[in-house]
Design goal:
The structure is a homodimer of 434-residue chains.
Chain A: H1 2-18, E1 22-28, H2 30-33, H3 41-49, E2 55-62, H4 66-79, E3 82-86, H5 94-105, E4 109-111, H6 113-125, H7 132-136, E5 139-141, E6 145-147, E7 156-161, E8 164-169, H8 173-192, E9 197-205, H9 210-222, E10 228-235, E11 238-247, H10 250-268, E12 272-274, H11 280-291, E13 295-299, H12 305-311, E14 320-326, H13 329-334, H14 340-346, H15 351-365, E15 369-375, E16 390-397, E17 400-407, H16 412-433
Amino acid sequence: MHMVLFVAAIIYILILILYELDYSIIVVGDEILIGQVQDTNSGYIARHLTPYGWQAVNIRAVADDGQAIFDAIDEAFVHSNVVLMTGGLGPTKDDITKPTLCRYFGGELVYDQATARNVESIVAGRHLKLNDYTRAQAMVPSSCRVIQNQCGTAPLMWFEHDGKVLVSMPGVPYEAETMLVREVIPQLMAHFCDNVDIEFRHLMVVGIIESALAMELDEWERKLPEGIHLAYLPQPGIIHLRLTGLSTDREWLKSEMDRLGLELRERLGDHVVADEDLPLAGIVGNMLRDKGLTLATAESCTGGNIAHEITAIAGSSEYFIGSVVSYHRRVKEQQLGVSASDIDHYGVVSQSVAEQMAAGVCRLLGTDCAVATTGVAGPGGGSVDTPVGTVWMAARCGNKVLSQCKHIPGHRQRVIARATNEALLLLLSLLRQV
Amino acid sequence: MHMVLFVAAIIYILILILYELDYSIIVVGDEILIGQVQDTNSGYIARHLTPYGWQAVNIRAVADDGQAIFDAIDEAFVHSNVVLMTGGLGPTKDDITKPTLCRYFGGELVYDQATARNVESIVAGRHLKLNDYTRAQAMVPSSCRVIQNQCGTAPLMWFEHDGKVLVSMPGVPYEAETMLVREVIPQLMAHFCDNVDIEFRHLMVVGIIESALAMELDEWERKLPEGIHLAYLPQPGIIHLRLTGLSTDREWLKSEMDRLGLELRERLGDHVVADEDLPLAGIVGNMLRDKGLTLATAESCTGGNIAHEITAIAGSSEYFIGSVVSYHRRVKEQQLGVSASDIDHYGVVSQSVAEQMAAGVCRLLGTDCAVATTGVAGPGGGSVDTPVGTVWMAARCGNKVLSQCKHIPGHRQRVIARATNEALLLLLSLLRQV
């Protein structure tokens, strides 16, 4: 056993020495610098690459300007041997980025048959006609290897020079993210981490704060074999634990990761609510599916956002029946059957109203479970007794009910987002009891 | 008149020469580089500063590492005289950023009475107790001027050196954004643009594509006096036109901007749907309020997201009554009164079902208007006739109905977001007719 650990340690150290896993991100686009568009590309690139052991050392946004792009590439290669670039491509921008890449890596723009065919098939699939703009997408620097874009017309381009690699990707987030996962990450791993296997295990943990969890796992974590490490990724009310293993010994890695994943799971017992990386609404959804329960929501201050988060999960139609957004008092009374005198007596933002909303929507839509919210999202509508940010929420399952009041600081959008999160956590607590 | 224009031109050129309005953004935080948190700070900083004539030349994310922060500041000052930095503050990170700022700008960490009082009052307002962590927030570099944080405990710090300015702001988005608008932008304007007034006029325009709009306005735009310029900010289905004016002559500026705003409005006639910068749901909301109409939504594939966007607008309770999310067929039939035989005959994703949903929710919740969606968000559930991304939507107002079918490419979240946008645009079209 010690011999195995020793060999694994040596292999891991070799990996770290042989493979430069630092990288930089360059996001190209005037629209980012003027704040018209929020850059999301750098975020998901980092989110997808980090688990593979890649570390972003530098993220940078630059204008659609040849010299700015050139300088940014030059500077990025000081920090790392790999640069992932998004944007600056597409019909109206091609004239800046592609010539700049030619200037940096050499070569000239050439017409690429395979890219032209890909552009044609993408355009045809959208029932559109090819025009000069889309046709121009087939012009690529002769110094690159094209990775065909399976979701759009702008080709991905892989440049190599002196052991350095730059991958240019389109700026459209859903195109770039899809291609990153399907092609870019596998190709980066093959290029830089030849023969290295990677395995992940995930646990989503509730009911324990991060510092207590870290104390609980401290000893266990320090005994992890080389090449395997644990990351804490706390989210509001829930902690994502990710175990990452790297090794050239595939068999050993798989069995070690299985063993350690199981150990971790046993150690954390009831705190574990999922063994995959899922958003809160996905964890709740899986529990409902596993227990064969159906769900409805009755929302006042969250205005449909809980239903939105639940239905953002693919397959949610298996357990989610529907929702009543009862913004007006009349809807609370007439559709959800909330007692008018209770509203008058306790106030519309009260435990009684939240619980009656949950019961009412279960009855109306014929579901097993429900979650309900009533509160003051602001900026107006607050009072001394019920200041802005006050939210009562209730979760119901069969005859069991949990309810709580939260005071959420911040602006309207934040109150709505946090109330949504708290309501889902409350439902999760209840589902763990039934 | 020509003399006035000439003077305005000279003043504008002087402004450009005298005031360096380039700036850089540095976002500090390991959580950004590993993709755990999506940086939104750089986006809204740029969005708020751009209209004032400030131009971001460089946006950069760096780790919670003293040397990385030091180098990033050094490099940012090569690009611009102003650096706005967010993050790297707060209880657990103070030990890195503040000493680095001392190293860069000189001075040492000192206990600041005013900051201590602010921290105490913020902590008390949240019904929490002061601990060593929060108390440490009152330690600030002696080389800075503190701007008290009105929303949280981490103080904002203004550093000046050789005509260069760095403002360090907390990383929590709602704290930093609030303080940016309330304090940082006014102080930057006072510091760098002494005596310069700035005025904006906004128009939201629909029913015309950007290139046609640009052609329509080309001649008018070229005649704009110096110091006043027009920006096109296209969004899906809607174009935001922003007129920005800078001048030291306040009277002249105001009257010119009034005159030009009116001219632009007259020129674009019926295309104008709002004369302030508003999200689509806000434009729809104002129209409903102006016409004294009430609204409900009936949502299938959008799963409550339309209701969520409508209720994200403050004051929406004046016109928004509620919503039925009819995810399950049963809810469409029983609550919304959609004909079961029509569902069988036309399919659940059909014009007939969308229109019956809109009519049904108007009847159920007693509203004047409604918008409804039914579609396939994917990834499952598609068929040859109704592939993933197909969405039927209907808008109803009184007895008038508009409906349309859209084919939206992309993943589930994108289909939901775009269908929400298209449904709101459809409702807007209808509201313009009634």
